[in-house]
Write a structure and sequence with these properties.
OB fold (Dihydrolipoamide Acetyltransferase, E2P), two-stranded antiparallel ribbon, single chain, Rossmann fold, alpha/beta, Ribonucleotide Reductase Protein R1, domain 1, 9 helices, 3 domains, five-stranded mixed beta barrel, 28% strand
């Protein structure tokens, strides 16, 4: 323990820090003096996540209690019926990782983009494992799908974590980046290439299931440089958005926005209402039918959940 922290411990005054790892009910907190404490949470306080700025009381050498969670700029989390999973707080950039293998899950991407828009987090879509594309036609199919997101204004980058991560480096500068995506897309390999000391475990892809195994089991923050950090998170296959109301959900699909206040009815939810400008735009081919179907699926799940609460 450094002298600065020890002095504050004697007077009982709080020490400021940031949560850099979350292990269930135990957390690692790095203080402004670069000392790391293993901490628990005071009383019944819940919901502490990686990236939170906190105040702790030092109780022993290397031990502490989280007393206060300071206000967040944002919170990235998913919510299903009767259950929620808080992932990270105070991030500036969502790096959503797709891969050539396993097959790209664009609905999962859409759901995460909605939360990023809702929380004011800048998204970066990263296509990994481009070295595995052995046919130009295969690559063209993938890139045509990603072109849609480019046209929406999202940043899209192709990369191979196994061979060269340098194109990504400038995009991480000055950011607190959250790595997210389904299992097996290479987030841990990517992190190890960027930060060798991270030493995250990796695993092979199942050819039969076209999916990866979970190798990251908890959320952890790694320092990339003096001004940049990367938060690694476990892969997920589902991402519920029960925390959003219908208006916030629609606003999260950025191409919907020009039509949202043009409908005949003020409370239009863009499902089957007459005079809906959003549905009209979809019928005219202006909007992507897959994205609209994703929105309708999410609306249905929100309404179903609300009936049980």
């Amino acid at each position: 323990m450094r002298a600065g922290d020890a002095g504050k411990n004697k007077t009982g005054s709080p020490v400021s820090g940031r949560v850099i790892a979350a292990y269930g009910r135990r957390f690692e907190v790095e203080t402004t003096h670069a000392t790391i404490y293993s901490c628990v949470v005071r009383g019944k306080k819940k919901g502490v996540v990686c990236g939170d700025r906190v105040e702790i009381l030092v109780t022993a050498d290397g031990q502490g209690i989280i007393e206060t969670v300071l206000p967040r700029s944002n919170l990235f989390y998913r919510s299903e019926s009767f259950r929620e999973k808080r992932i990270a707080a105070n991030v500036t950039q969502l790096v959503f990782v797709l891969a050539v293998v396993p097959a790209c899950n664009f609905e999962l991407l859409d759901r995460c983009l909605v939360i990023a828009e809702n929380q004011g987090i800048n998204p970066l879509i990263l296509l990994n494992k481009i070295d595995l594309v052995d046919q130009d036609a295969h690559r063209q199919v993938i890139m045509q799908s990603l072109m849609f997101y480019r046209e929406l204004g999202y940043s899209v980058l192709e990369i191979s974590a196994e061979t060269d991560v340098q194109p990504l480096v400038p995009l991480l500068s000055g950011q607190i980046s959250l790595l997210a995506g389904q299992s097996g897309v290479g987030k841990s390999t990517l992190l190890n290439a960027l930060i060798p000391l991270a030493r995250q475990a990796t695993a092979e892809i199942s050819d039969a299931l076209d999916s990866g195994r979970h190798t990251t089991t908890h959320v952890r923050l790694f320092h990339f440089d003096a001004d940049s950090s990367i938060i690694d998170s476990p892969g997920f296959q589902e991402f519920g958005l029960q925390q959003l109301d219908e208006e916030s959900l629609a606003w999260g699909f950025i191409e919907f926005r020009p039509f949202l206040r043009q409908c005949k009815f003020r409370n239009c939810r863009h499902v089957s209402e007459p005079g809906c400008k959003l549905l009209q735009a979809a019928q005219e081919g202006v909007l992507n039918s897959r994205r609209l179907a994703c929105y309708h699926k999410l609306i249905k799940s929100i309404r179903t959940c609300s009936r049980f609460h």
